[in-house]
Structures are given as structure tokens and as C-alpha cells.
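#lab-general

N.A. 3:47 PM
ok so I finally got the sequence cleaned up, no stray characters, all 377 residues accounted for. can someone with queue access submit it? mine expired

B.Y. 3:52 PM
send it over

N.A. 3:53 PM
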Amino acid sequence: MTTAELPQARWAAEEWLLGFARAVRAAGLPVTADRERTFLLALAEVGLAERRHVYWTGRATLTSSPADVERYDQVFTAWFNAEQPKQTRRVEREVTPATQAALEDAQRGGETEPGEEMVHARASSQEVLRHRDVATLGVEERQALARLFGRLHPLTPRRRARRHVRSRLGAVDGPATLREQLRRMGEPGRIHRRARGTRPRRVVLLIDVSGSMSSYADSLLRLAHAFVQAAGPRGSVEVFTMGTRLTHVTRALRQRDPDRALVAAGEAVPDWSGGTRLGESMAVFLDRWGRRGMARGAVVVVFSDGWEREGPELLGEQMRRLAALAHRVVWSNPHRGKTGYQPVQQGIAAALPHIDDFVAGHSFATFEELIEVVARA
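B.Y. 4:20 PM
back already:
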């Protein structure tokens, strides 16, 4: 079916296009609900008269990196039974190369040699650091990255509460309005309104600290510390580490100083850089904490590369149980944002059908994107 043959009714067209966006997500692209909404709103502006409008609108709103284009093209061709529009070749312009200072020189603010054009802006060096793979950073760069983690203030997702609160635009609050009339001795007074309030939604972070994730564990625990601190002492954030066993480290991460919190968490974790038993760890979490209320209606974030020591069947079954309890399941994989990555590991392949958001998790920039995904859940 071509774009011109799409159903003319508005609801039918939206259903067809929404199905295409979800097919793109099923192919492994990080298509969130916000991206689906943006895709539909953009198409409402450009129209459906030509197939290329749909193709380029979807490519602009549903892909996040050049690595996603190939899979997007495959889904577009299969869904619309048509080839994607050919790209027009741009005329390459000669660009004068610019000399840029190294990260260390920019942070020191040292002197430059006469005649050299050097860039010493600290903002530029931090921007480079934000997109670096944290597994490749040196000691000084990790210290600079730790300062960036101190500036994070994750927002806790909200859920509707049972109780009502005063509101300017809600339904009429009959009892409050009546009390107002009685205080005024029957004279007409202000009409009170009310609406259902909101409460923080619980966030559960499950961090893989096995050998294959050891180079990312420090940064992931700093990110978890930021979540715990932003939620406050009575917050609704819980943190666990997964390896050969499951360890509850929320209490250790409640210490205000991040370095002391990481040391306390490291002392509490007995299987640091060991093997991986994701399925067994997930089963322990669900049996001991999840079914008793911690995972019910929560946003659960799993940080792992998906390497499973045991068979993938157990992990798939536990992820199915988790998806049935949680409000939303997010999986952050450090290899997800790298060029050429395919979710072919047995653990990831078994978990994907039960994941709502499959996002990258290898740099500070991807951690910021993850915070937005959790806040919108």
C-alpha cells in the first residue's frame, strides 16, 4: 500500500501511522511515546499527499543516530510496500580545518604558542566529555565526569493519587462550596473546585555489576546516587545491584557525599566484577520485593549488556513477570548507542518483547536522555 492509498478517515490514518511507528520500535529503535506523538503532529503539518513526506518526517522524528537509518528504511519499505525516496547528493564545500585544544589544555587554560589558533572554552571540553564512552576515560577525565554527575537533578515521575486537592480548573467541590455559602449566611460566594492530586511514582534501578559491566559500574552507581538524592530521604527510589546475587544498596547511596556513598555501596556488594545471573537475580527481586509492592506501578530501569551466564529462558520469563507488575520497563544497554550494534545476545533477545524503552547507556549524554525517559514515564 502506498501513502496515497492510506484510508482517508483521520482516525484510520492515525492508526496506520501509529502502527508504523510501533513497528519501527519493534525493530530495535528507541521510539518513545513522545516520539510517536511528534511523528503524528509533524505529519499533520506536512500532510500525506506524497510518500517522501512520510519518509522524511518519520526519519526526522523516529531515528536518533545514523546507525538507525538502515533499520528504519527496512521497516518503511516493508510497511508501505515501497522503496524509500532517494537522497539528493549535496555539494561538498571546502571547510578550513580548525585547530582545537586538547581536553587537558582547555581545563588548565595554559598559554598557546604564537600564531596557533587554540580553543580553550571549558564548555567545549565538557561537551566533548559528555559524549565520550565512560569505559574509555582516564583518571582525570573520570574526575571531571564525577563533577558533572553532581549537577544532575533527576525528576521523579508522577502518578495520579486517590485523594483530591483544590484546583482552579477541576470539578465542582460540593461540600467545600456549601461550607462557603454557610459562612456567608447564604449569600452567593466563590465556587470551589477540586481535582485528583499526584504522587511520586516509585523508581527501581537494577544495576548489573558483573565483569562485562565493570567499566560502567562506577558511573551507573553515581547516576543511581543522583536519583536517590533527588528523591530525598523519604523518596521513592530503590537501587539494587545484580551479579551472581542481588544486593539492596539504597541505604548506602543515601549518604550525601557521592564518593562515600560509592565506597559504602562497594563494601555492601559481595559479587563485584563476577559472573552474571540476570534471570536468577530478577527472580529474587520479584519474589522478595517486587510482588510485595515495590515493582507494582513502578518504573523499573535495568542497566545491563544482556550477557546471561545461564539460559535465556529464565530471564525471559522473569521479564514477563516484571512487565506485568511495573508501570514501565526501561533497559539501558551500554552497547545500544554504538554503531553497528544489534541486540543479538541471548539475554537481550529474550527480554526485548517485555521492554517498553530500549535505550543507550554508555556516556553522560545518554544518561541525561535516560533521565528524561524516566521523568516522562
